[in-house]
Amino acid sequence: MPSILIVEDEQRISAFVEKGLASAGYTPTVVADGRSALDYVSTGSFDLILLDVGLPGIDGFEVLARLRAQGETMPIIMLTARTSVDDTVAGLDGGANDYLPKPFKFDELLARVRLRLRESGQVAVAESTLDHGGISLDLKTRRVTVAGKAIDLSAREFALAEQFLRHPEQVLSREQLLSRVWGFDFDPGSNVVDVYVRYLRGKIGADRIETVRGMGYRFV
Description:
Layout: E1 3-7, H1 11-23, E2 27-31, H2 34-43, E3 48-52, H3 60-69, E4 76-80, H4 85-93, E5 98-101, H5 106-119, E6 129-132, E7 135-138, E8 144-146, E9 149-151, H6 155-166, E10 171-172, H7 174-182, H8 192-204, E11 209-212, E12 216-219
Parallel strand pairs: 1-2, 1-3, 3-4, 4-5
Antiparallel strand pairs: 6-7, 7-8, 8-9, 10-12, 11-12
Helix pairs in contact: 2-3, 6-7, 6-8
């Protein structure tokens, strides 16, 4: 699977992204400053970079500029807490492939990662579809079929179903689902996971998502 370099000095965010990408089957590496990012790129082999703007020492814009000046063509997605349109324009004009403001939801980040990797030829066509137990999710068209019959899922229901189909027969905790589908900034005390599991059961079959008491949910 593709290797992704995460350049982020805020540990809570980097841990959240690293864990999510690893669970999605990618190989993540985390560094916390711009100079380390440049060193890692020069010595390692990465398919994509998630690059925070606000880094200590050398900021993300400078890292971007140096990489592009060196002829580095891998996709780079900028992450930033800044809301200035000028910053967004500067990043894109400087050679970034995408720009994602914080706070972000993991499913959006993952969708952007897949898109940029597809564009660079790093993702096989077969990976655009998930199939398990008679359920099929087309990650490109967002179409869903259950036993060959098309059904409608909301964006959040689709993201939740995607997590289950990527990890069949595995127990996923409420905390894991909350962080991957709703984002690292979402209230951990919320019951939104249970609510959406109920919605999803109503559309794909109640017997397909098993409650594991005290632990979470399992797609069976």
